Amino acid sequence: MWHVSYQPLNCALIACIRYMKILQPHQISSEVLEVIHSAQQYLILVSPYVKLTQWQQLAAALTAAKGRGVRIDFFVRNDPDNAGSWEQVEALGLKARLVSNLHAKFYFSETSGVISSMNLLASSNSNSIEIGCKLETQTELDELKSFVKRFVVPHEISERPTEADLYLTKERFSVALEHYIADQTRRDARVTFQKDEFEIRAVSNTFFLYVDKATNRLFLSAIVSEAEASAFEARCSTFFTSPAFRYELDRGDRGHYSMVEGAYQPRLSTAYLDNLRLPEKKQLLAEVMTFIKSVRAFKDA
């Protein structure tokens, strides 16, 4: 027979169970608004992602709080791909404090607070199933203050990403690639999208970039002459050395060009190149440029 002994619950845990109020999805935004409206001294807002363009009620509440002299500390996630969140905050005349690896979401003032799964996104407010809890005791609010000091502020960064990185996160891949090739070669380049592939005209040659949407695999190819095609097997290892590609020759026949082809070995995180995150996008731009330079050097030889 099993014997189970029950220990008394910790007093703080009992207090938490007794006073913590679980918020239903439709209640969360109104409680966050109440935190902002009732603040007289300070507001701490921790939301990795922010988009208030379609949430004018919340934007107006923050503007009003700023106008009545409330000190507002607004923490968002430090990520070049998240630059839109900083811009949303700063469009309200507030400073966005950038924190690496931020995932927590909570909002509090000197009198009340909300911990929630909800970012300050209009889409989260309108479409997502969220959960939260309301905090009202001084003990709970002091715990949130302590959390900010121990885990949020120490990870705040002082230097923002470079303008070049911010540009790459926002620009369409075709435009970014065109500018990158032109900058690297000091010559004009043209990148267009047609028939499910990118056509690249650069260094006096034509290249093609294709992504298989079923497998997220990327392929590059370049037109070569028949003489160059005949020399490919003997000279391939000299000019085509990047381990990022598997190279082969596609012999043209019946009026088709011969092509040097490179299968990009890393599998892309998404088949939609505009949606690549910054590190992956930068790596891909560099490897495409390597392929182009390798083809040019091979042809020149």
From TrEMBL:
Domain Phospholipase D-like residues, every copy: 33-146
Note the Pfam families from the entry. PLDc_2
Which InterPro entries does this entry report, sorted A to Z? PLD-like_dom
Please give the CDD domains that the UniProt record associates with this protein. Answer: PLDc_SF (cd00138)
Out of the domains of life, which is the source?
A: Bacteria
Put simply, this protein is called Phospholipase D-like domain-containing protein
Q: Which organism is it from?
A: Hymenobacter koreensis
